[in-house]
Amino acid sequence: MKASISKFLIIVYLFSATEASQLLKLPLLFSHFVEHQQKDPSMSFGGFLHHHYATEHKDDGDAATDNKLPFKSHDHCCSFVFPISIFHTIQLSQIKTIIIEKKNIFFASSGNIISAYLASIWQPPRF
Predict the structure, then answer these.
(1) Which end of the chain, N or C, is less surrounded by CB atoms within 10 Å?
(2) Rounded Cα distance, 24 and 18, in Å
């Protein structure tokens, strides 16, 4: 049940807040390709896509259909947010005061530190 609800919500989001709703226009793309192929049987599907999307498309009498093709125009897509709270509200009953004590930190100068370099095995060879 949770999986089907989550899939439904993802689909609702994709079709309302993104341009995925343009995919619903794919049958129109194929039917318009069939119309063009009846006029010119030598036209391939790639040529059809190049003619309508890649080049400046001149008006060939079917401008109304051309503008309805997928990804040819932008629909009025908008995003929305579900105002549903899925988290429980936590109310604090007491406010606790935290006291941070000031501590003096001692920084030793490099002259006071015994070098770990001398005890290291990764030293250059001595002659």
Answers:
(1) C
(2) 13
Low-confidence ranges of the chain (pLDDT < 70): 73-93, 106-121, 123-124, 127
Query: How far is Cα 85 from Cα 82, in angstroms, rounded to an integer?
Result: 9
What is the distance between the alpha carbons of residues 20 and 12, in angstroms, rounded to a whole number?
A: 10
Give the C-alpha separation, 12 to 9, whole Å. Answer: 5
With 0-12 CB in 10 A as exposed, 13-18 as middle and 19+ as buried, what is 95? exposed
Residues comprising the chain, all counted: 127
Residue type, 83: P
pLDDT value at position 30? Answer: 87
Tell me the three state secondary structure of residue 108: coil
